[in-house]
Design goal:
CATH superfamily of the largest domain: Exo-inulinase, domain 1
Structural class: mainly beta
Number of domains: 4
Number of strands: 47
Oligomer: single chain
Shape: elongated
Number of helices: 7
Length: 685
């Protein structure tokens, strides 16, 4: 990320409480000095280690500029230490670590090097944990960003008059690597910089005082500061004991995600903004302000068709404002029974079959089940954000199944992966629906990257016994399937395929054969369907959640994206029933760069019957003769399960509102009943 954006993220995470618990318990440091014949004793309180993001089990010591350090101090009543205080902290330290350096380079100000050093420091810290658990006072792992007169005078470099001042990084012998130095800009932070927070309030001779007041007092400053004439002051006085900061304009950090719900449902849009001072929020519906909607979360209850439309949020502070990308709310008014569903909130890999292929025969894919994408940053038009929850995640969950291909090794070979649910067969009129996120490297059109074009693939009426992907080496194929890339990086961004049991699948090229409206992202309906207001590449569905549907109706196959038909053709293939398929493929022998930015996520997969008929899907008798029943459910409709022994008198057992999954109930009263009948009655929406 650009420095200012990265520091906005750090500020927001620290201020929202995403810091390890062990940093919350401050450690007292007691000091004394005889100043002009008077003995003084004071106690101040410091964080046991440098500022970190994360948890006790997984934390990251976070280098930052002094400007960000000062902003954090101002927000939570702290200051940075002086040189003398750094020495005092080292004297009181329980864990005296040995400094670990990394060879100087231009990369030492980058996050990958921060991460390398974080791992080195953590490994050494772990060797002390048994004797000194987390929360013990630590020194020797970083040099300190400090308060000093040299923030404003006696510059080491005449061209740098707004410096960061650093000092410390003591060896266990007490000798510091870093003397007092102010030769870097205030916008500089490398892997070795640490920020130790000191509570501004301390005790002095039994009274409560502020450290900043002591440092400006010529009779007391020497208790905490040893700076002298050579540093531009005397008696330890630091006239301005802080870095000068200015306001930071608002920035949208977490974009609101699109949502779908049924009539009467509840949805929430969530966003997060950074800035200093903290920005305020205003939500908009179809471009107009929503009265009273001034928090980071917008909750809409009892949703009606009139609530459908676009939502966005404005974040504003004294330095400026920012407006989020637009999100859609779609309202379902005519739901169909769900006969199969998986939201991937749990690891369901045992319920799916996985097949893969690669031209070189070397396994080159990953499949991450129940993958949590809530902390995955991505760049959109040069601004970074996090992947929001998907449209059909009613509880704003952030898990799905994630695939990569052709980026596990240095061999550039075409590759693909498919999954099929076990023991499933669908026929007649039905629809496969899911939420889809395609991530690609680079900017619009994959600019500033290589190997960015990879296709999400999905299909109907498969055998579920082999991989299906666009490979000339596949021995056979089956089913009807489609593919789309995220960034519009090829002439055939939208693709249609027909399986061939005797050999390689056929890519249906040409509008008549494929049924596609167009195959290129810049043509046809695509620019309107995926406009620049919501998508980085106009006409391509990458870097945003979209809703996908494949529908089979009376021998017609439809491919629908965000409610718009993009392909329609008559099914004369012989593949009229079978399993569903989800997958990912790379048909080009080039590895995406950065490889970590090329993946696909599927969420809220479901199959709906188009007959509007609720039916029992399965029943299973338990060992105690209790019975578990599963039946298809219509989202948003009330389902009343009833039981009878004579088909005349019916007993209510269970009532539930359908969601995006079949319903289930275990009848505890079925034990020792000779015969029992069940039925489900539909209530009103």
């Amino acid at each position: 990320m650009p420095l200012n954006e990265r520091e906005n993220w750090i500020y927001t995470q620290v201020l929202s409480g995403n810091v390890p618990d062990f940093l919350r318990n401050l450690v007292p440091v007691t000091v004394s000095a005889n100043i002009s014949g008077t003995n003084h004793m004071g106690t101040y309180y410091v964080t046991p280690d440098y500022v970190a993001i994360g948890t006790d089990a997984d934390y990251f010591l976070e280098p930052m500029t002094p400007l960000l350090a000062q902003r954090i101090c101002d927000a939570i009543g702290c200051t940075l230490p002086t040189r003398k205080m750094v020495n005092q902290v080292w004297t009181n330290t329980a864990v005296k670590m040995t400094p670990q350096t990394i060879s100087p380079s231009a990369a030492m100000i980058t996050v990958p090097v921060f991460a390398d050093h974080n791992a080195m420091v953590r490994a050494q810290r772990n060797t002390f944990t048994n004797s000194f658990p987390l929360g013990s006072l630590v020194s020797g792992n970083k040099k300190d960003v400090i308060i000093s007169t040299k923030i404003y005078t006696n510059f080491a470099n005449a061209g740098i008059t707004k410096p960061v001042v650093i000092y410390g990084w003591h060896y266990p012998t007490g000798s510091p690597i870093q003397p007092l130095y102010n030769g870097h800009e205030e916008t500089y932070a490398d892997y070795s910089h640490g920020v130790r927070l000191v509570q501004n309030s301390m005790t002095l001779d039994g009274n409560s005082v502020n450290i900043t007041d002591i440092l400006t007092n010529s009779f007391l400053a020497a208790l905490l500061s040893d700076e002298s004439v050579s540093e531009g002051t005397s008696a330890g006085v630091i006239k301005i004991p802080r870095y000068t900061t200015g306001p930071v304009s608002s920035m949208i950090l977490i974009q609101p995600g699109s949502k779908r719900t049924f009539v009467g449902g509840t949805v929430s849009f969530q966003a997060k903004a950074g800035g200093d001072p903290a920005p305020g929020y205003r939500w908009l519906f179809n471009g107009g302000l929503i009265a009273g909607a001034t928090s980071s979360t917008l909750i809409i209850t009892n949703v009606q068709p009139s609530n459908a439309g676009t939502y966005s949020v404005q974040a504003t502070n004294s330095a400026g404002s920012a407006t989020s990308r637009t999100a859609w709310l779609r309202v379902t008014t005519n739901s169909q029974p769900v006969v199969f569903a998986d939201d991937f909130d749990a690891n369901t890999s045992s319920s799916w079959k996985l097949f893969w292929g690669a031209d070189n025969g070397v396994l080159d894919h990953t499949a991450d089940w129940a993958y949590d994408h809530r902390l995955d940053p991505f760049t959109f038009n040069s601004s970074s954000s996090l992947i929001p929850s998907s449209p059909n995640s009613l509880a704003n969950t952030t898990r799905g199944v994630r695939f990569t291909v052709n980026n596990n090794d240095a061999a550039a070979a075409t590759a693909g992966v498919n999954i099929y649910p076990k023991n499933q067969n669908f026929s007649g009129n039905y629809a496969l629906k899911f939420d889809l996120w395609i991530q690609y490297p680079g900017g619009a059109g994959g600019i500033n990257s290589t190997g960015s074009t990879e296709h999400a693939i999905f299909g109907l009426n498969h055998l579920g016994t082999q991989p299906n992907w666009g490979a000339p080496t596949a021995p056979s194929s089956d089913g009807l399937w489609f593919g789309v890339d995220g960034e519009g990086g090829t002439s055939r961004d939208y693709r249609a395929y027909l399986g061939n049991p005797a050999g390689t699948e056929f890519e249906l090229i040409g509008l008549a054969a494929s049924g596609l409206a167009e195959s290129n992202n810049a043509a046809g309906v695509y620019p309107t369907l995926f406009p620049a207001t919501r998508f980085e590449t106009t006409g391509a569905p990458g870097k945003n959640w979209i809703e996908v549907e494949l529908r089979q109706t009376n021998n017609f196959i439809y491919w629908i994206l965000d409610g718009t038909i993009v392909a329609q053709r008559t099914n004369i293939s012989g593949f009229t029933s079978g399993n569903i398929m989800l997958g990912f493929m790379d048909t080009f022998p080039s590895i995406a760069n950065p490889a970590g930015d090329a993946f696909v996520i599927y969420d809220n997969v479901r199959v709906e019957e188009l007959t509007n008929r609720v039916r029992f899907l399965s029943s299973s008798a338990l060992s105690n003769q209790q019975l578990t029943l599963n039946w298809s459910a219509i989202p948003g409709r009330t389902h009343a399960l009833e039981a009878s022994t004579n088909l005349i008198d019916w007993q209510p057992l269970h009532t539930a509102v359908g969601s995006n999954a079949p319903l289930s109930f275990t009848d505890l009263e079925a034990t020792n009943i000779e015969r029992r009948f069940y039925r489900v009655r539909l209530g009103t929406p």
